[in-house]
Amino acid sequence: MRVQVPHQRLNKTNMNSDITKCDGEGCPVKEHCVRYLTPPDENLQAYFFKPPGKINDEGKWICEMFWGQTNEGVIKQLNDILNGK
What we know:
This protein is α+β, with helices and mostly antiparallel strands. It has one domain. Helix content is about 25%, strand content about 10%. It contains 3 helices and 4 strands; from the N terminus they run αβαβββα. It has helices at about 5-10, 35, 70-80, and strands spanning about 20, 45, 55, 60.
């Protein structure tokens, strides 16, 4: 009988539960965001309670959690954490 190690099972799935997904409600850039476009993990998936984006005082859409092709927002946040900001 073969024993299945949990991490081996997880590595064969899409691992989408590792990211917090967004339902994209009201977001004008959701079709360009990994957090919206990635299919949810069927067993376990985290979602934001409410979409993190908003319109700022100048009327521009901003979202610190946007995860696009370059992942600039995520990379900046990780660098801030690593640099103690």
